[in-house]
Design brief:
By secondary structure, this protein is an alpha+beta fold. It folds into two domains: 12-82, Winged helix-like DNA-binding domain superfamily/Winged helix DNA-binding domain (Arc Repressor Mutant, subunit A), CATH 1.10.10; 86-116. It is built from four helices and two strands. It has helices at residues 12-24, 29-36, 40-52, 90-109, and strands at 56-63, 69-75. The chain has a two-stranded antiparallel ribbon with strand order 1-2. It is elongated and about 55 Å long.
Length: 116
Amino acid sequence: MSAGRHRMMANATAFAAMCRLLHEGPHTQAMLMERCGLAPYTVVKWLRILRNQQLVFVSKWERNRSGRPSAFWEWGYKEPSAPRPKPMTDAEYCARYRAKKANKALTHLGTVRIDQ
């Protein structure tokens, strides 16, 4: 196998479904795995191949429940990717923890819930 060629082992139908989802709008890797029924490694490998061919790009980043940024992938030829956000500082992590703890305590007491 030459260096420029990649062998696709998984189902071509699943690859086509993943490409269709990327055409429809932004999706995270987890969303693509769930909707296409693919393993995490397969989705990561295919996104890497498509990114190297400049067929997909990261349209935005959003922080998940743990505070880590999740990339939203979208179809687009030679589109620039959104810059990855800076990591949260220790102060931001502490403030987030305290807000969650206060929310849990207030909810437990039956008072008003503070949404995040």
